Amino acid sequence: SQWGEENLQALSIQEGEDVTMNCSYKTYTTVVHWYRQDSGRGPALIILIRSNEREKRSGRLRATLDTSSQSSSLSITAAQCEDTAVYFCATVNNYAQGLTFGLGTRVSVFP
Amino acid sequence: EAAVTQSPRNKVAVTGGKVTLSCNQTNNHNNMYWYRQDTGHGLRLIHYSYGAGSTEKGDIPDGYKASRPSQENFSLILELATPSQTSVYFCASGDGTGHTEVFFGKGTRLTVV
Hints:
By secondary structure, chain A is mostly beta strands. Chain A is built from no helices and ten strands.
């Protein structure tokens, strides 16, 4: 597998708290995608970080990439109920530059 | 707006029957992909395509065929459906650079009984 087994987890937090999820990958990559999947929908890109960026921010989202340890993280600041979703990290594979996904992190935000 | 449309959204099929899942994209992307999603396995790549007339095997192609008759359309075919193929299937399209968004459809829930 492209991804480490620690990818699969579920996190429950209250509104206003911060949450961080981590991914580790086994093969070299120059970019890590983070996707969000809402119930009954397909995954949608929320942030993409390249190997020369180390950190990328988008609104309340912050992604990091450490190519030396082959790991990436996604943080959500001041989580809201609408952040409830499954979050996936993904790297680019050799199959027409498609994506290989980790197992995902289910984040549940309660009021 | 980028769009990938799958049909049907839900399908119940009998064991041994033929099933065709259809996908249409209006993104003008060369590359298209079929994934299945199962609890505990995440999204796994079944087949992909570089363009019209091209189909290639992904990580789990056994029991599946694909067809890419045009730039816009990419089908997944189960010639002899089995209960183990009960899953949610996602079609996606991308520009092939790996550095831009891959767009997904809403998925097809297939149940084989």
